[in-house]
Amino acid sequence: MNDEILESFEGTRKAGAIAAGALDELNSIIKPGVTTEVIDKFCYEYINDNGAYSAPLFYRGFPKSCCTSTNHIVCHGIPQNKLLRDGDIINVDVTAIKDGWHGDTSRMFLVGSVSVKAKKLVKATYDSMIKGIKTLKEGSFTGDIGSAIQNHVEQEGFSVVRDFCGHGLGKKFHEPPNILHYGEPKTGKRLSAGMLFTIEPMINEGEYNTKLLQDGWTAVTKDKSLSAQFEHTVGVTSNGYEIFTLSKKKLDLPETLK
Ligand code: MF3
Ligand code: CO
Ligand code: CO
Predict the structure, then answer these.
(1) Do 77 and 67 contact (CB within 8 A), yes or no?
(2) What residues contact residue 73 under an 8 Å CB cut-off, 6+ apart?
(3) Measuring from atom 2 of ligand 1, which residue has the nearest CA?
(4) pLDDT of residue 125
(5) Nearest CA to ligand 1 atom 7
(6) Is 144 close to ligand 1, i.e. is its CB under 6 Å away?
(7) How far apart are CA 30 and CA 41, in angstroms?
(8) pLDDT tens digits for 161-177?
(9) Which of 92, 97, 203, 235 is the most buried (most CB within 10 A)?
(10) Ligand 1 neighbourhood includes 56 CB (under 6 angstroms)
(11) With the CA atoms of 118, 95, 177 and 8 taken in that order, what torsion angle do they form, in degrees rounded to the nearest 10?
């Protein structure tokens, strides 16, 4: 890979480590009785303390430093003064900008003791993301990613959200290509070494349809069923991939689901 690509990988590695580091710390913060605003304040501080900026803050008018999406919220939930309750599931999505490069990642957290079906949804979502990532190498297709994710999710009896997708990123937060989390093998864009993008499947317990709330951001499941999401920032290499947002503490997946 040329110098330009190596530089973009090095930049994304640093940004990704900060975003993932914030999520690592949240493991001991998220519990019943904590508000999503507390999670947001922590993310703001952590990112700033690490010499980076939060990409969501004021992005297209978004008011906070991370997204917090509980239960039937599919994505882009806005942190607020509302208590997490025992049994909730929550996705926290963090994006750090370090030296101009973006690292974008999200994980699910289990609040207190969570139902068996919610755990099954969270595990299937994580596994689908990993299966999507494992397809990556120069010459494979974006459709290979979507197909791997969709096959696993539907086999588990869940559905893949169509209204949101993964995205290219780099010096910009969102850029081409779109990474759909469903599709057919050998369709879409062909991957080349050096490409940077996210894989971030949103998976619903029920139907895949979503609805946007009045705040203009919060997307929820139309049938009010649970939804889960994980996200990694990845780079394509000649024979595989690099994941830039892995947990250094092996906290990528909630402990009880390993
Ligand atoms: N981090 C989200 C993503 O995965 C985007 C959040 S945009 C915001 O692409 F404005 F809602 F923060
Ligand atoms: Co993203
Ligand atoms: Co994100």
Answers:
(1) yes
(2) 91, 218, 219, 220, 227
(3) 93
(4) 99
(5) 56
(6) no
(7) 13
(8) 999 999 999 999 999 99
(9) 203
(10) yes
(11) -130
